Amino acid sequence: MLDEFKTFIAKGNVVDMAVGIIIGAAFTAIVTSLVSDVINPVIGIFIGGIDFSNYYVDLSMGGYESLQAAQKAGAPLIMYGLFINAIIKFLIVAFVVFMLVKNVNALKARLVKAEAESAPPPTQTETLLIEIRDALKK
User: What are the DSSP calls for 38-77, one per residue?
Assistant: First the structure.
């Protein structure tokens, strides 16, 4: 069983996935900072200096001065401002991942095309084998 586990861990896909998860976690910190420290203040300028993270609905109707005061009192809250921040973060991450995948696919296509163009033409034996293979497929 230990040998099977070693084989599983040594496979490239598992290692690639682990690297992706680690990079994703680090990327989350960057996106969080981008949204909190860069995007929200800019959006706040256009909507009157409002910070989304302080938007909430107090279900207890306690009339608290701030989100922190309501949380300290243990009031039931709907913190929709934090939800808006999460949506902004998601959209940024989704866009960055889209751009990354798009560029990686374009790079792969260029590499495949360059490889196909630089490959020597098939020999007469290879051409014959290709014809035989295609005939057998029919």
Answer: IIHHHHHHHTTS--GGG--EETT----SSHHHHHHHT--E
